[in-house]
Amino acid sequence: MGDGGTSARMNGWKFIRFVNALRAVSVSISAQDILDAQACLDRFPDIPDKQILKSIFIRRSQDSEIFESIWRILLETQKTSVQEYVEEMSEKAVLEETQDSFGMGGQGVGRGSGGISLTVIGHSLDSSQITELVSATRLEALTASGLEFDEIVQAVLAEMDYYTWINTNDLVYQRNELLEESWYEHQDSRTALNREIRQQVLTAQVSQQNSWEPLARQHWLVKPLSTLTEEEKDLVKLSIRKWAQKLALRPGSRWKISHRGFIDIARVIQQSIRCDGFIFHLSYRQKIPRAPELVVLCDVSNSMGSFVEFLIYMVTCLRTRFRKIRVFFFIDSVWDVSDFVWDDDLGAAKQEITSWGRKASSGFTDYGAVFRELAEDQLRGLSGRETLVILGDGKNNFRPAQTEYMAHISSKVRNVFWLNPLDRQAWDESDSMMGAYQKYCSKVYRCRCARDLQKIVKDIF
Amino acid sequence: MQASPLDLAQVLKEEGYLIDEESATTLFLSLALEKPCLIEGPAGVGKTQLALALARAEKRKLIRLQCYEGLDLNKALYDWNYAKQLLRLQLAKTEDWNEIKADLFSIEFLLTRPLLESILSPEPVLLLIDELDKSDEEFESFLLELLAERQVTIPELGTIVAKTSPIVILTSNNIRDFSDALRRRCIHIYLTYPTLEREISIVRSQAPEVAHRLTKDVCEFVAKVRKLPLQKLPSVSETIDFARALNTLQRETLNYGDLMGTLSILLKYPKDIAKLEERLKKWEMEALQRG
Predict the structure, then answer these.
(1) Domain CATH code at residue B125
(2) Helical spans, DSSP H, in B109-194
(3) Given an 8 Å threshold on Cβ–Cβ distance, is A179 in contact with B286?
(4) Is B112 helix (H, G, I), strand (E, B) or coil?
(5) What is the chain B residue with the closest CA to A57?
(6) Fewer Cβ neighbours under 10 Å: the N or C end of chain A?
């Protein structure tokens, strides 16, 4: 390959780097795929490299974007290495610093990093304009500042008055001063702009860190659930269904002790009497499901909404595996929503999540009060066979933890599993009460991304 | 096989299917590599039609397996003809049992189902495994041998290898995700709703009786409708039906005010129709404002 193709063909080194990059961001490429790609590159010199590689390496539509990102970083920058690209970015930055006196935001003053304010552009953007909207210098500075990917994207957008721009257009549309077609154009521009900014931030991060790690973090399996796009959300839901189906097909891990259970001696003897004392078949005790009853307790305060959606979806998929499921939402008091949350599209559950915020007296989570209410009122009729799953960040807004109620609940149920969307380091920070509650839990899981959910499905259900 | 993706697009066009360049290239490569092609996308974008057009273009016999929940090997691959086996046993009471035993599980007593039919066919075939996402995971796993090796294994007969390599097309509406093992064995095409220009061309080729102006209006209208948050977006075939319906009503252009009663051809859920009717009033007012 490479030398054997036309002069325009990508060389072997670039090909290997490209494959390596795709693998680094979790796109699975086998040796056979590589052979197929090489064969096609040789056999069909008229078909562009990109199309051949995309056809052979990409097997999920959602991986297309990551393919495009890598292609752009590796092959459209026309540089032989990421390092060279970094050097070029630095040179550009120096040049821009000396030439540019306009601030981002179009004020002509301020951050001195160049850029255009979207508010002077109108409702829609020309696709050619989009790539020129961000100043490389500013982007590099933000990337070097150590901010997270989403924070950088937000900062870049804020600096170009993106939020003012979208709010203004929303308002104009609501007042019927913007035609529907123009509104759609505006929506398309928003999407395109967001995509471009994200792409540029990723490129800058990859260059600066000289690693594909920033791109790998954008994979839907490891991305925080709260930052998923609509397509990625659908994908996570599809995967949850798949995991649930797998669970249904794997009874071995669902039943106690062993697939067949304990031998029931009394029944074996009873049956042998009918056959003159001969034993022909062994009888087993009735199988008991590992989690016969489930109680789910979800914090639905603003920071938790996106996580609740996935947990409820997961429980919906696993509904048939439990004898009884009760679902409670809470902020500073508890509400039984067991009858509302079983829609496939989760419309009713989402509605409950948003409307509950208005019903709450303060809007600030109070775990102590919630556990007290739960212990005193809601969980009186416990059978003792329940598994309690709590979804919450453990942040108690500096209110008393009232751990005695948590201890009481824990003693009344078989298991308590706590799912926390925060990273472990944040569990003991400021107002988090995880440390106090953790000792009453059978296990505390991080539940931040789809991969965490996958582990939880395997372990708990 | 065609010499290039353009040639493939051309022969498909002659068969009444307009394919975009990227999908044509991917399909061409899957044919060149003799790998199954997994076509995914929302309902009604032309996944099955692509397979049908390809079978005609390649002059191959089409063998279709429609998947559904609970589909098993007896329906998809083979079954033993028990009635015939019983008759054989009754007729051969005096014969040697060992001979009969071997004879009972021979090809003669085998009922071939679509998958086996495609493997045994002496003439080139195109095997369409339609809506695979509706089948169960066990069936998906069973397909791996067929997709990778073009062979199937029947315990009583052994492994049967395809006489002619069939073109295999799998379609899916994304109701459930497939395993990596299945995806790895296929080349993937994601079909989505066509661009305005392509949809106009499709409607013109499928419904040439509809006036050009009306075709354009209908396609622009459908493109607008697809941007609404509906439960089911209109498919290409529904666009064609809608254009034909308006043509039957002798409309020459599309007016937002005249669409009541025809929207059920385009949308299939009452909730969606109500949403669109509400929006139509707004669009009509905007059209009036523009003069």
Answers:
(1) 3.40.50.300
(2) 114-120, 137-149, 180-184
(3) yes
(4) strand
(5) B187
(6) N
Grouping H, G, I as helix, E, B as strand and the rest as coil, residue B94 is coil
| Pairwise CB contact (< 8 Å): B137 & A245 | yes
**Is B291 contained in some domain?**
no
Contacts of B32 in chain A (CB under 8 A): 40, 43-44
Helix (H, G, I), strand (E, B), or coil: what is residue A255? strand
CB contact under 8 A, A241 and B176: yes
Q: Please name the residue that has the structure tokens 């090809």.
A: B107
Q: Which residue has the tokens 């929207």?
A: B263
* Cβ separation B29–A55 shorter than 8 A: yes
Q: How far is A202 from chain B (nearest CA, A)?
A: 25
Domain ranges, residue A177: 82-218
Distance CA(B35)–CA(B49), nearest Å, equals 19
Residue of B nearest to A44 (CA): B4
Residues B19 and B95 in one domain: no
CATH code where residue A387 lies: 3.40.50.410
The answer to whether A59 contacts B38, with C-beta atoms less than 8 Å apart, is yes
Q: Is residue B82 domain-shared with residue B65, that is, in the same domain?
A: no
Q: How many A-B residue pairs are in contact by the CB < 8 A criterion?
A: 73
Considering the domain boundaries, does residue A5 fall inside one?
A: no
- If asked whether residues B30 and B150 sit together in one domain, one would say yes
Considering the domain architecture, whether residues A342 and A435 belong to the same structural domain is answered as: yes
Do A114 and A39 reside in the same domain of the chain?
no
Closest CA to A365 of A385, A389, A394: A394
User: Closest-CA residue in chain A for B228?
Assistant: A184
Last residue of a domain, one of B144, B169, B190: B190
* Partner A contacted by B180 (CB < 8 A): yes
**Contact, B187 vs B25, CB < 8 A?**
no
| Structural domain containing residue B30 | 5-70+119-190
pLDDT tens digits for A233-259? 777 887 787 777 666 554 444 444 455
The complex's ipTM? 0.87
